[in-house]
Amino acid sequence: MGSEESHKSMESNRRIRRASQSLFFFVILLGSNFVTYFFFSCNDLTTSKSSFNGDLHNRYHQHLANAQQKQRADDDGKEGMPVAELVAGLVFQLNVTQADLKRTQQELIDVKAELRESRLELSHIFVDALAKNMELLNVSTHVLEGMHAIHESKGKSSSSSSSTSSKQDSSFWSRWMGIQDDADESHAAQKTSELHEYTALRPLPLGFNPGQGSDTMVSSIGHGCALEEDDLKKFMGYKVRGECPDDQNLAQRLLLHGCEPLPRRRCFARIPPNFTEPYPVPESFWTVPEDSSILWSAYICKSFKCLNDRKKQKVFDDCNDCFDLEGKERERWEKHDTELDFSIEEVLRLKNGSVRIGLDIGGGSASFAVRMMERGVTIVTTSMNLNGPFNNFIALRGVVPLYLTVAQRLPFFDNTLDIVHSMHVLSHWIPLDTLEFILFDIDRVLRPGGIFWLDHFFCGKSQLKDTYVPMIRGMGYRVHRWVTSPKMDRGRPEIYLSAVLEKPLVRNIL
Description:
The chain has 510 residues and is an alpha/beta fold. The protein has 15 helices and nine strands.
């Protein structure tokens, strides 16, 4: 028995040495490419002592120095290459290295399982250290990819502003992810901030989780936050376990600028001082809530009466009658004012009762969701609080709000929703490529046979035929309704499109 255990231990140690050698090779490759291409060729990108954390740097410092000396000789002919090409090449090689690292990581996982069985605690610590270093390499790869993307986007402007922005963005990402050199005392406060506390990579208390495929947990935050450093610092500058600042507008501005999702905070949300219990369903559907149910500090209007009076103003205001539940809002999807107006009844009849759950994108005050709930269909409504408490209003009516910008990926799994509806929001004010991504995301969450109801889409008259019809029809949906009509409210040559489309049950892709 003793010899068998000894043989198993020797075999495990040999596998560890093989895995360590493989990891060592890839670290050398990564370090040499990073130091040579990035630091000696890309003078307009930010520089730092190392892309790795202290432990990894100390372990392989000598080997990296040797690799640098060799690589400098090989790269003498590459000084004239454009920065973007060099960075792109670096990112490509990093991706290849990362794939190899993942394979090596799986070998380490297998070894770790064997070591756990044989209770070799010292070897466990060694394998854990190797796995942690691999995690740091992956973080470094992602940061460099982000820097590459920022560099390409900024490259369209002047090279000087591009270099400055890239340096600022990469510096922020480095501080944020906690991989900057600890010797840099100027960022010591940042490392201990709430932002760092939230984004820190943390080990799972029970160790490696096979279902998650990792032994760490990462908190999500939008990549656009790196471009909004000042506002993000304000947002995260609060008293821990105290009352959150009155910063609804700041939070919404961050979301609209791509900082989505926002980081979580450890403070208590403000409560209206005289909150009133909501009306019961179904009375709540068509009853305006009490003013005391809302925190009004973020809005120009301080009451629902003020919001309802906006419809009397001649200046254009998006959804200026959405809070008037006794006016036009109550008639929507019930009456046909124009040929563009489809009723909920006629759309539901297309599916013979199989429409049960869905989404309304940019649904204002959620009257569409209320009308659908009256027919036994559950609709989630996305809405922002653009000069009005839309999300609170939706919830007080008794339906579900989702505080989400139109640019955010829909938080639903593939092929799950029966219907997706959008009125006015999906239109030509959205950049063309962004709109295409949105349409494909809608297709992703719709189940086969699901309904996409594009309600009052509008664009320039000349754009519809040449640009938007090919984009929408190119999704390959069955057309149940398709109506166009001139849009007359702004005095410009615009046109409306209302369409009811059905996702195919089978898609033939060449």
